[in-house]
Structure formats: structure tokens, C-alpha cells
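FAQ: What does the model actually see?

It sees only this:
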Amino acid sequence: MGLFGCYATLNNLEKDAPNGYPVTVKDVKNKNSESIGYVATYLIPFLFQSFEGWYECFSVVFLLFVIYRIYINSSLLLINPLLSFSYAIYEIEYLENEKNRNGMIISKNKYLQDDEPIKIYEIGHKLYFSIDNP
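And it is asked to produce this:
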């Protein structure tokens, strides 16, 4: 069900993205690998643990709850490792109407460069879906 929902959402975004507005990228930072490194440091100690007692199971559930809260209360929620199969996630600074702005974008372009024109479609606060500007 989750895969179908993700597929349908991304398909709808791709259809609506041409309605976005053109901007020029001034600075690009790739964010694809950030969340894996952060979460891996917490998960590695639990890989070699037995789950025979209630204490061990509670520890894992507590860890997953803490990771959940961190993701919800930070920008890590926008950095989804599953999206990296087909999309790239960038933090960008862009020029819009002679003003510098910033935000995060989800893009099929895995090689986005500075000073590249793109079209962005807003899907959340400072979160955009981008397509190449023809």
C-alpha cells in the first residue's frame, strides 16, 4: 500500500510540476546521504543483539521511537533514503524575482549544477518538486 501511495504521489507531482515557476539555482548541496549516516550510528549496536527478553525488545522500540521523533521534528523528514532510487534531494539557494531564497527540492536530475535554470513546484514549506526548465 505504501509503495502504491508513493508511486501515485510522485506521478501526480510530475504531472503538476510544469505549473511551477522558473528559477535559477545559485548554490546546490546534495542531501541524499545525510540521513543514512545519522541513523546508522544508532542502529549498528542493535544488529548484534539477541531479542530473547522483553528488555532487548523494549530497547529497540524505544530507539525507533527516538528516531521517529528526530525525523518529525527536523528537516530529516524531507530526506527519505527510498527516494534516492529514482530521485535526488538537494538543498538549494535560488534566485526568484531578483531575491535570493532557499529550500529543498526533489528532482529526477541527479547532476544539478549551479546557475542552472529549473522549474519548481511547491509541495510544502520550503519543499519543492523540480523539473528541468526547457
